[in-house]
C-alpha cells in the first residue's frame, strides 16, 4: 500500500488552508526575525525613510508611493511596522497569484504554484528590505489578476480595478511602465483584446489611470534629469558584470529554489513502477496557458534586453515584480496530472527553504563577526548612534536636532536612530535633497557624520568645501551587539551651531 504525506492530504482536502498557512508562516518569520535581531534596517531602507520623511512627489530613486508608505509604517510602529508592511506586500502578491491560478488551473494546482514561490529567493531573503520593488510585486500581481478578469472572464468592471492597479504601480516603481506596455501589446495582439477595446470600460479606465498618475507625471516632467541621474547609480550596482548580465544572472539565481523543488518532485532517477500521489485538474484553455506563459517570461526577458541595450539597470535593479508568475507557469507546464514523487523529500526541502533562510540570517549575525570579520549592515547600532548625536546636540545647543548630513551611508542611519527624526541633507549629492540646502543647514544647525579611519577623524573634502567653518570633534566609537573580531565602529562628526535665531 502506498502512503502519502500529510501535506499531500491537505493539498487534496483543504488547499486553501495550505495556502494561508504557507503564506502567513513565511510572513511571520520574516517579520519577527528582523524585528528581534536586526539592529539596523537592511539594504536601502534608511535612505528610503530619509526621502519618505519629506513626503515629496518623487526623488532620484523613483516614484513616491513606497517612500510615503514606508515612512507612515515607521511612524506608526517603528521598524516592526516596516517589516510587517513588507510582508503584507508579499502575502497580497501570493493571494493575487493564488486567485489568478484558481481561475486558470483550479484551487489545488494554484496552491502548488504558491508553494513553489517559496523557492523564489526574491520573495524571501530580500523581502524585509522594503522599497519600490517589494511594493510593486503585489500591485503587479493584482494588475495581472484584474486584467485576466476583464479580458479572460469578460468582467468589464475589472477594467477600473486594473486602472487603479497600474496607476499605483507606476507610483511605486517605474518598472510598471514595462507591464503597461506589455498589457497594451497583449490587448492589441489577441482577438479577445481587440474585441474588448470596442467597449467603453477600457477607455474610461484609461481616464481613471491618467488621473491617478497625473501629479507625479507633472513632477516628473520637470525632474527628468534628477531621475535619469538616479538611473546612473544602477551601473555601479551591477558590480563587475554588465547591467544586462547582472540582471540575467539575478533572474536565474532567484529561481534556484524553485528549480530544486521541481527537480525533486520529478523523482529522477526513479524506478519504472515507482508510484506517486497524483493531483489532477481540468484541462487548461489554450488562451489561459498563453496568458500565463506570456506574462511569466516576457517581462523578465524584456527587462534583460533593456538592461543590455541601455547599459544600466534603471528600475530593474530588483527582480521581484518580474517573477511573480514563475511558480504558476511551472505548474501550468507540468500538465493536468501532477505526480509528486518522493513527496516526503519534497516536503522536507520545501520546509527547509521556508525556515532555513531566517535561521541562517540569525546564525550569520553571531558567526560572521567571529569568522570572516565582515561588517554586516543589519548589525549596525543605529539607535545608539542616533541617540548619542541627538542627545549631544540637544545638550549643547538647547534645541532638538533638526538636520543630519555627511556620508551617504552613515547620515541616513543616524537620522533614523535619532528620536527627533531629523531631516537628512545629502551632502554627497546636494541636488538630490531639494528640501534643504547647505546654507539652510548651516543657518539652522545640525550634525555632520562620516566614517573615521583614525582618532583624528578628519572630515571629507566635500564637507569642507560646503561647510568651511566646521571643526571636527573627537570621533565616537560604537560597539555592535556581537562584536567578535571586528574593530569598533568609528564615526567622525562635527556640530554646526545655528547662525540664525
Quick summary:
It is built from 20 helices and 7 strands. It is mainly α.
Description:
The chain has 501 residues and is mostly helical. The protein has 20 helices and seven strands. It has helices at 6-13, 15-37, 45-52, 65-105, 107-117, 132-151, 158-172, 176-189, 191-196, 201-222, 224-237, 243-254, 256-266, 286-310, 326-334, 343-367, 382-397, 410-417, 438-444, 461-466; strands at residues 278-280, 337-339, 403-406, 423-425, 446-451, 476-478, 489-496. Helix 12 (243-254) runs antiparallel to helix 14. The protein starts with 5 loop residues before the first helix and ends in a 5-residue tail after the last strand.
Give the number of DSSP strands.
Answer: 7
The main β sheet shows up as: 5 strands, mixed
Overall SS class: mainly alpha
Number of domains: 2
In DSSP terms (H or I, runs of 4 or more residues), the helix count works out at 20
Low-pLDDT residue spans: none
| Rg, Cα atoms, Å | 25 Å
What portion of the residues fall into strands of 2 or more residues?
Answer: 5-15%
Distance between the termini: 86 Å
Average of the residue pLDDT scores: 91
General form: globular
Strand order in space, largest sheet: 4-3-5-7-6
H-E order:
HHHHHHHHHHHHHEHHEHHEHEHEHEE
Roughly how much helix do the residues carry, as a percent range? 55-70%
